[in-house]
Amino acid sequence: MLEALPPGRPPRFVGPYRLLARLGAGGMGEVHLACRADAPTADPHRMVAVKTVREDLEVDGDFRTRFRREIAAARTVDGPGVARLVDAGPDAPSPWLATEYVPGPSLAEAVVRTGPLPAGAVRALGAALARALAAVHGVRVLHRDLKPANVLLGAAGPKLIDFGIAQAFEATALTSTGLVVGSPGFMSPEHLVGSRAVVPASDVFCLGAVLAFAASGRGPFHDDEMAAVVYRISRAEAELDGVPEELRPVLERCLRLDPAERPPAAELAALLGGGGAPEPFPWPGGVLSLVAEYRAAARAAGEAAASGAGVADLPTLGPVVPYSPTAVPDRPVAPAAAPAGRPRRWGALAAGAVAVAVLATAGTVLLNRTDEQGGGPGTPGGPSAGATATAAPAPAPVSLSRVVLPYGGAGRAGDFGAAGTDRASRPAGWSPWRAEVEPGGGACALSPEVLVCPGNGGAVTALGAADGKERWKVPGRGEGLRSAPQYPAVVGDTAYVTGPDGVVAYGLADGKERRRVPGPGGDWAVKGTDLRDGVLYSTYVNVRDERTGLVTAVRLRDGKELWRSPLDGLPEQPVAGAGRVFVPVGTAPVALDARTGKAVARGAEYCGGFVVHEKSGTVLCSARQDGAVGVLDARTLRTVRTLGSGVAAGPAVNDAGLVALVDAEGTLFAYDLESGRERWRVAGASADRVHLAGDRVVTTDEDEIRTYPAAGPFLSTGEEAYAVYRLSLPTGFASEVAGEPLVAGGAAFLPLPGGLVVSGYLP
């Protein structure tokens, strides 16, 4: 992304170029947007990308020799699909090179921010890159590090960067010893053997992996363990789930184990689409928007430099975490065990290759934990016209532990736990989708196969968790406060929804009504519900007299009402935990015994909402009059301490006691629950909701999901690190606030109040 240079410093020059803005950094250097100092320009197409070696690194003679050789090779490469080398300074105190600047995002960023590309765009992308590789191979040059981050998307089509020269900057030590060169997740089997084994067909293999990522949002060799990634590459065990069927035959040929069985680059270009690049290039609208952002930012940077404006005045595009194909372990790991019997040559080399590759990459710092970076609309899974139930395989009964409930489950802590990022918890066969449901202000509940979403007037829609297709639907029956939608509960093979007529149980497979537990009736309307240990706790308000409220407890397995307790005042959302039911009511909160419904404690200060943290014996009180989050003793409801001020979203708390919240200024804070100490903060995180999932803090608003490393979202350079997933919304759709997200297995499910549910990758 484009970043302004540090303010208050004189202009920087590299060779004949003036640096305008920072584009990025690698292990050995930085990349800047620049223009010739003697010819200032605001035209992005006359600018260059200048890559420099870090000043603190010692550059020896071997490096300069290799650098000159790579430059000489790069000068022979030309063509519309390659970012050409413009200039270089191999003999400068800090060697540098300048390449054509491509105003547009990398393929990695485009997929992260806008989702997988349509099949037609992937074909055009692949054909253009294959033609570029054919040109590179035609002058006896290899790319050797083809990955999504090395493909830039310009308005006229894609361009390859960092061929050949990348090794001089980033991999000199590796290539000089014959070790692994490439990027985990996008290497070929030959890369695992060593740089001397890499051939033109290796680039084709890498291109196949890149196109699979472009089409599905994930690399074909992804696994949570690095050793498993490398082992799968060594056997060419590609997973193409999510890749459109029409693209699979070609990609399967590219990803064959034997290099001789892969198509040459020129043949691949013909397979994907002969002729030159189409005009205009068929980028989807989201990619074109990113290209426009880059062009505008580069133009503004050039204009500011030409006019003498300070660098602090330059516009910047918000930082996005660099694409990481897989998690790299903190220390080398043992090679993955291989099955007996490897008839092919590459299989015979796998064991050593796995060990070498893991050792060679274990020191690399990657900021994201998975390669599932991206997502976007699949085929909308809207309701079937005129049908109450849609034929679909019946889901197997599920246990409560496998169900994901709103607000992060128990205690409404906003923590989806390790299952939030563990791929094993993802619905089988899932890919990004969006669907329409009955509008409502509640949230959904997720079982392994079905997403249950309530709507206005008692409406309920069940969607396939994997594809968003409607399974069944119950139409709404009323309007107004009494029919306000509530949060559903799923236990076993039954979905429970509290509506205007009480608690209704529906079969999860077919939507048939199984049981109905009458509510208090009369003038009582549902205000909130919470599920704990098979008991559904509900609060009601009297629509004729809001000075009175009611709490009920219903055991779901048999529909028995265990107790009901009247309240003085207007109750809000109940939260069950620590053997109690905490209810914001009137001007002060109350705690009821979960077994009997008797009041056991009353607070002295107003609370608009509760979060229960049983491990510490505390509850978090939000929406206080002072704008802070109160930490209360769960037994007495007395305030122990406060966290933050002007809180606008959160709090969420995990089992380890990390509290996350966002204030009205858009700053995301992390606190230690036990001590109240601030752990870190990051600005620019304006959000409607904040949650925790595994090792990430998750924020959502009306059009995007962000994740931040829970340990602290900062690089060694002090820059902020986060990942973004842009929601794919229909043209003209607008939602002022986000709904309550659900997270499971790295997939996010976000209901929006306007009647749209969007499912995409957790970035």
Brief descriptors of the model:
single chain, 763 residues, alpha+beta, Transferase(Phosphotransferase), domain 1, Methylamine Dehydrogenase, Chain H, four-stranded antiparallel beta sheet, 13 helices, 40 strands, elongated
Produce the secondary structure layout.
Blueprint: E1 13-14, E2 17-25, E3 29-36, E4 48-53, H1 61-75, E5 85-89, E6 96-100, H2 107-114, H3 119-138, E7 151-154, E8 157-160, H4 165-170, H5 172-177, H6 189-193, H7 200-216, H8 226-234, H9 248-254, H10 265-273, H11 285-307, H12 345-348, H13 350-361, E9 433-436, E10 445-446, E11 450-454, E12 460-464, E13 470-474, E14 489-491, E15 494-499, E16 502-507, E17 513-518, E18 524-532, E19 535-542, E20 548-555, E21 560-568, E22 575-577, E23 580-585, E24 588-593, E25 599-602, E26 609-613, E27 618-622, E28 629-633, E29 639-643, E30 647-653, E31 658-663, E32 668-672, E33 678-682, E34 689-693, E35 696-700, E36 704-709, E37 723-726, E38 742-744, E39 747-752, E40 756-761
Antiparallel strand pairs: 1-2, 2-3, 3-4, 4-6, 5-6, 7-8, 9-40, 10-11, 11-12, 12-13, 14-15, 15-16, 16-17, 18-19, 19-20, 20-21, 22-23, 23-24, 24-25, 26-27, 27-28, 28-29, 30-31, 31-32, 32-33, 34-35, 35-36, 36-37, 38-39, 39-40
Helix pairs in contact: 3-7, 3-10, 7-9, 8-13
